[in-house]
């Protein structure tokens, strides 16, 4: 078997464009997921039973079903209800954001619960409301502690975003499939796709390690 380096060189620019789309999907999905997860994570700790129950149902349903099924629900099933076709990009971002939000919610919940309860009592004794105490005292401390799991979620979403290729969205995996369909160079292309994913995940991992060290240093000062 001959390894075709020329095929890799010819296909690399196209695959890099796909990698750019993958990063775009990941950044947008995790960003929306952070917003969803923060509010749902706080709702999971609410003393209001209906709010806590709805948040728990959302988290359990999303975490208990495959992302692929969620993508199919958004792209194929939802249009049957609303009567309008959904753009693949919108469907991909929506499904991935909802999925990420459930996992981020548990990360936030764990981070908030790791903060000493006396912090909330101290804030309330200073005349701050529950929301003010959560915003200015609890969440900043919790955020420093959840950087590593948030980094892991970002990496997981980067890899899971390959599933949106099933709806024809041309991210890295889909671009690889299209190149293979044209050139039949399965081995060379999939090795290259894997290498690009590896470089992206290692880069993110190193960046998360840097942030973690930086915040630890700031805490010492």
From TrEMBL:
The keyword Transport applies. The chain crosses the membrane at residues 12-43, 55-78, 189-208. SUPFAM superfamilies: MetI-like. Residues 19-208 form the ABC transmembrane type-1 domain. It is a multi-pass membrane protein. It is found in: Cell membrane. CDD domains: TM_PBP2. Keywords: Amino-acid transport, Cell membrane, Membrane, Transmembrane, Transmembrane helix, Transport. The keyword Oxidoreductase does not apply. PANTHER family: GLUTAMINE TRANSPORT SYSTEM PERMEASE PROTEIN GLNP, MEMBRANE COMPONENT OF AMINO ACID ABC TRANSPORTER. Belongs to the binding-protein-dependent transport system permease family. HisMQ subfamily. This is Glutamine transport system permease protein GlnP.
